[in-house]
Amino acid sequence: MTSTSSAQRWRSAQARHDRLLATLSRRGLLGFGAGLAASGAFGVGVSHAREEAKPHSLDAFFTPDVVVAAALSPAGDRVAVLRNIGENGARRLAVEVVDAADPTGPRRVVPIGDQEVETLAWANDRRVLMRLAIPVTAGGTVSIGSKLASRTVDLHSRRMISVDLDTGGAVVLFGNERNRQRESLNLGAVVDYLPNDPDHVLMAAREYSGRLALHRVSVYTGRASLVDAGNTNTLTWATRDGVPVMRIDTNARGSMFNIFVRAGAQGSWKRVWRQSIEQARSFFWIAATDRPGVALVAARLDGEDVMSIRDLDLETLEFGPPKASRPGLDISDYMLDAKGDFMGALFFAPRAQYDFVDADMAPHHLAMNRFFDDECNVVLGTADAARNRFVVYATGPREPGAWYLYDKAARNFEYLGSRTQMETDRLGPTETLAVPTRDGATIEAFLTAPPSRKPGPLIALVHGGPEVRDTYDWDREAQALAAQGWWVVQPNFRGSGGFGKAFAREGYRRWGERMQEDVEDAVAHAVRTRGLDADRVAIMGTSYGGYAALMGAVRRPDLYKTAISICGVGDLGDMLDHERRDDDSPDGYVYRLWADRIGDPQSDAAMIEAASPRRRADEIACPVLLVHGEDDAVVPVHQSRRMHDALRAAGKTVDYVEVTGAGHADWEDEIDRSLMRRYTALLRQAFA
Q1: CA-CA distance, 483 to 479, in Å (whole number)?
Q2: CA–CA separation, 255 and 218 (whole Å)
Q3: 198: which residues sit within 8 A by CB, 6+ positions away?
Q4: 547-552, Cβ contacts within 8 angstroms, sequence gap of 24 or more
């Protein structure tokens, strides 16, 4: 047993670890690799020819998934398809077992029930693992002045279950440890599926001391044995044959990753890399190699423009030359087979393309693309050990997504299931634009038309980061706006990530001008070339995109009829002050990264003030909607609160929504749907 105070500390440490691990997953520091299809894709609907398709309703974009996930067994003889078989909106999940040799034949159905399942993966050729998210309510007391008040928070407790698909029997991993089950929020983190040990997986779990430990867990009994332990700041590991050889820690604030490696179990941990959580990734682990002490990683070394795949000597920390690299494009992802061996590197140019290790895979991938009329991203998910069968998923602007089984030897493509029942011709088509900028450069942008394709209003939807990018893919927000009869342009302005360091640097210290100008040029190009209504243009975005929406309203009161800022920055000087105060890295690493990108508070003070919308609130003419999560750990909620106060003091039209218990735009679908109704109501009024 543990005391109440230590249990509370343990839960607090776990909650912090889970938030950072979720960020780690979103940032892709470990990549996606073979788990991409297993962790979920999107669905494809049936298209029906008609003269003018009626757009989907707003609610249709927020309906529960029909198929949740699909994955191929290691031997390649079976596919597990996780489907919701409930009726009238009820959730009743079941695993359909597909015979890969006869995919159109009858399917065995294994009931799962009313559960929220986040991931599906095979543990061996008989059992699958599913991570469940179980709603819980945590409570406690907080001090308010001299008084105490109670507060409850809705959380999710994560558990991993192992299900025998032949008998339907299930066990909970760590299920025999009652104290751990009672106190731990996250018992669903698999670090390694151990392809050479089909009876076990490696899992991370928080100890009572607060340290994160690595356990070997039986997929048949759920019992665990300790393998290794990190510290209170450890987030996860990567392993070779079950031995941890990479460890990722964070600093106390949770703003920076420290990445350590070692050559083997007896080696000492050495830091090989560090990077800010909020900046573009520059390193991630891919796989161990067949050479002891050598791993395959993706990294952008000093002086290099793009992130490339290369070897890393875990003892000497020396990097090899690039093995997979493209000029002007960072690697986005990679693929492994069932044995954990590297198969290829994924790039977006602008759709998904692979550089395969085996050249004979390339024509197969081209054939898959032709199957979808070259309109989708065809991503190879789980592959069998023989590299003959693959579970593939396809997503695209008009494809909410679907899973397929591809048999390489038979050259056969079989449909497995769709995430939604949305009809593709009731969605808006998207095209890639080459936008000429006012200073002679060219940037990429994506333009989504309404299903009718009729000219009308335009919305600039600006991505966050800013060192991330939009891709030619399914975007629920863009499609929901297009369904209202509006066009949506998504520019990859200079300063975006994914196109190499030089492209990102072109936005450094240019937040208030060049980066905004690129957005304005994309708007002008879309209006001019597609005959859109220049008098009905709006701007919106999340995080950096929220900042861009506010700054756009400052710069171009003649252009934008309304601005929607979601978790956006309103004052760059205040944001830099926040980063400096909270940066606990030994040399101010995180703060220096932001100052390099935004500007130096001393030498660039005038520029920073001019690029801060809160300081220029009186110049905004259009209505503004501000949305922010009250517990946002990335952009403090006071950014929107103070922006709201400044706009009200200036006599402007502004509304503010603060989402209780939410972080950085991480709210549930029901809240997202409610907010989308609010966005569309404001936009409709602005365009009237």
Answers
A1: 6
A2: 34
A3: 74, 123, 124, 125, 219
A4: 547/511, 547/613, 548/462, 548/515, 548/516, 548/519, 549/462, 550/613, 550/620, 550/624, 550/643, 551/511, 551/512, 551/516, 551/611, 551/613, 552/460, 552/462, 552/516, 552/519, 552/520
- Which stretches in the chain have pLDDT values below 70? 1-51, 138-154
- CB-facing half-sphere around the CA of 640: CA atoms within 13 A: 30
Give the model's pLDDT for residue 489. Answer: 98
Who's near 459: CB < 8 A, 6+ residues apart? 481, 486, 487, 488, 489, 537, 538, 539, 540, 683
What is the Cα Rg of the chain in Å? 25
Strand-strand pairing, 147-164 and 186-187: parallel
- Per-residue CA distances from 649 to 385, 625, 643 (Å): 65, 15, 10
Cα–Cα distance measured from residue 136 to residue 154, given in angstroms and rounded to the nearest whole number: 6
C-beta neighbour count of 51 within 10 angstroms: 4
Pair of tokens at residue 280: 């573009």
641 secondary structure, DSSP code: H
Where do the DSSP E strands lie in 484-608? 487-492, 537-542, 560-566
How much is the pLDDT for 51?
A: 59
* Cut 0.70: pTM above it: yes
Q: Which residues of 308-336 are buried (b: 16+ CB within 10 A; e: fewer)?
A: bbbbbbbeeeebeebebbbeebbbbbbbb
Nearest-angstrom CA–CA distance, 479 and 42 = 14
> Which of 580, 606, 605 has its CA nearest to residue 593?
580
Q: Copy the structure tokens of residue 46.
A: 């049936």
The torsion angle over the Cα atoms of residues 305, 308, 310 and 314, rounded to 10 degrees, is 70
**Max CA separation in the chain (angstroms):** 73
Give the span between the Cα atoms of 323 and 490, in whole angstroms.
Answer: 32
Cβ-based neighbours of 641, under 8 Å, separated by 6 or more: 628, 656, 658
Residue 179 pLDDT: 87
DSSP secondary structure of 101-112: TSTTS--EEEEE
Return the pLDDT at 25: 43
* CA 314/CA 552 separation, integer angstroms: 47
Report how many helices (DSSP H) and strands (DSSP E) the chain contains, helices first: 13, 35
Say if residues 319 and 303 touch (Cβ distance below 8 Å). no
| The pLDDT value given to residue 41 | 29
Coil vs helix vs strand at 479: helix
CB 644 within 8 A of CB 626: yes
pLDDT of residue 50: 44
Compute the distance between CA of residue 256 and CA of residue 260 in angstroms, rounded to an integer.
Answer: 13
**Is the Cβ–Cβ distance between 328 and 469 less than 8 Å?**
no
The three-state (H, E, C) secondary structure of 443-472, written as one string? EEEEEECCCCCCCCCEEEEECCCCCCCCCC
From 626, 652, 634, select the one nearest 570 (Cα to Cα).
Answer: 626
Q: What integer pLDDT is reported at residue 47 of this predicted model?
A: 38
Q: What is the pLDDT of residue 162?
A: 97
For every residue of 281-327, DSSP letters joined together read P-EEEEEE-SSTTEEEEEE--TT-SS-EEEEEETTT--B---SB-BT
Q: Is 306 exposed, middle or buried (0-12, 13-18, 19+ CB in 10 A)?
A: buried
